[in-house]
Amino acid sequence: MSLVEASLLEILACPACHAPLREDTEANELVCTSDSCGLAYPVRDDIPVLLIDEARRPS
Q1: DSSP 58
Q2: Which burial class, exposed, middle or buried, applies to 41 when counting CB atoms under 10 A from its CB (0-12, 13-18, 19+)?
Q3: Rounded to whole angstroms, how far apart are CA atoms 2 and 25?
Q4: CA–CA separation, 3 and 50 (whole Å)
Q5: CA distances from 24 to 4, 7, 32, 52 (A)
Q6: pTM above 0.70, yes or no
Q7: What's the longest Cα–Cα distance across the chain?
Q8: CA 26 – CA 21 distance, rounded (Å)
Q9: Mean of the pLDDT values across residues 24-44?
């Protein structure tokens, strides 16, 4: 099951580096596709929380 609509995912970008985002449905997150950034943003109640302070750093 998709976290966000495909049309929305096409226009969303990482607030930190402006790279595209991809879904991680198991973690319920949108993850930056940039190798240098890789922040993971939570999706809460079907709403992406695209705040850098709320993002999880890559491990």
Answers
A1: P
A2: buried
A3: 7
A4: 14
A5: 11, 17, 10, 17
A6: yes
A7: 29
A8: 15
A9: 96
